[in-house]
Design goal:
Cyclin A, domain 1, 0% strand, mainly alpha, elongated, 69% helix
Length: 194
Amino acid sequence: MATEKVKKEIDKICDLLNLPVVAKEEALKIYEEVEEKGLFRGRTTEGVIATVIYITIRKLNIPRNLDEIEKASGVDQKVIISYFRDFFKKLNIKLPPVDVKDFVVRIGHEINASEETIKKAVEIVENAKEKGIILGRDPNGVASASLYLASIITGEKIDYDKLLTVAGITAMTLRSRFKELIKTLKIEVPPQYL
């Protein structure tokens, strides 16, 4: 049974990530399962909490990434990934694949992109998925590059710095994903964007 301190920590991190109540309940349930199965040995409570929140967002298909969880929890991504791999096997968790389109929509709305640009970015992501260039890529990087490319196509001026901040990525990551997209999808862009 989770202590009051654990419940408060789960609530705090979920609030920082702006997660719904159902996510808090699911994270608590997974935490108690970890406890029940004796998977705590050699692990920190903070690490377990961060990991169950990561499992929760993946399970509920909520578009958040490891960077965001690391910032909210203060737990290094490497710890979360290590715990996640072990819990994944031992708890027999079934997770839906990450859908980059959800990240496009969330980031697009946060940077106040038009519906036309968001729709075009979703189209770009679909094409990229068909070509197999999304696999293994950070969803925030692909979503941001798709939004940036879509804004060029639609002629909408978006705030580049705000895009980087909201997505939590570097300019280098954005440029790399952007170049992959235009090369693989054979999209012509004006030279000033290259």
